[in-house]
Design a protein that fits this description.
About 40% of the residues lie in helices and about 25% in strands. The radius of gyration is 17 Å and the shape is globular. The protein is built from five helices and seven strands; from the N terminus they run αααβββαββββα. β6 and β7 (about 160-165) form a beta hairpin. It has helices at about 1-30, 35-50, 50-65, 105-115, 175-180; strands at about 70-75, 90, 90-95, 135-140, 140-150, 155-160, 160-165. The chain has a seven-stranded antiparallel β-sheet, with helices on one face. The protein is an alpha+beta fold.
């Protein structure tokens, strides 16, 4: 637990320091930085998200995950068996809808997602993704759905019809995600 907290503190110190350094020259002169605001956000996100995570998730997913308007939580049935008319997300029938994550929970999940230590990139995927929970990050009309498979210690990131999967680190990320 202490290691996870140190990671969160380190990430937020980096975020604060890089945003202060990035904006200080333009704010000191009373001017806004030139260029596209979206490009600036991507630069800031790249400074916060570990490179291996950025390479894995890609800019589109990172944009939604880091700037979500809200995050919805669901219990889902990975087997895909349900009655007709039941709501589905990414083909998984919804068993129940939980409460939306609060600001503190969203920041905690964003920190977990951004840290390379939350993933097991060196291992190949052992099994097919069989999620029991799903977090839906919503930014305007765009969404990223994170399907969480705690039994196989995997998570899948759905964005614009494309799924990417990776193992969840069982000693750092999985216990933290389970608490949320």
């Amino acid at each position: 637990p202490g290691g996870i907290m140190r990671q969160y503190v380190a990430v937020w110190i980096i975020v604060f320091a890089s945003s202060w350094l990035f904006c200080f020259p333009c704010n000191a002169k009373g001017k806004r930085p030139n260029g596209d605001v979206q490009a600036e956000k991507i630069v800031q996100q790249a400074q916060v998200v570990d490179r291996s995570v950025s390479d894995f998730l890609g800019a589109g997913r990172i944009a939604v995950l880091s700037e979500a308007d809200r995050v919805e939580a669901y219990r889902i049935d990975w087997a895909g068996k349900s009655d007709k008319g039941v709501m589905t997300i990414q083909g998984y029938p919804v068993i129940s809808r939980g409460r939306d994550l609060n600001h503190q929970q969203i920041k905690a999940v964003q920190g977990i997602i951004a840290a390379a230590s939350s993933y097991e990139f060196q291992w190949s995927k052992r099994t097919r993704l069989r999620p029991s929970h799903l977090l839906r990050f919503i930014k305007g009309r765009d969404t990223v759905d994170i399907a969480l498979d705690f039994n196989s210690r995997q998570w899948g990131f759905y964005h614009r019809g494309r799924l990417i999967e990776e193992d969840i680190n069982e000693t750092s990320a999985q216990p933290a995600l389970w608490k949320i």
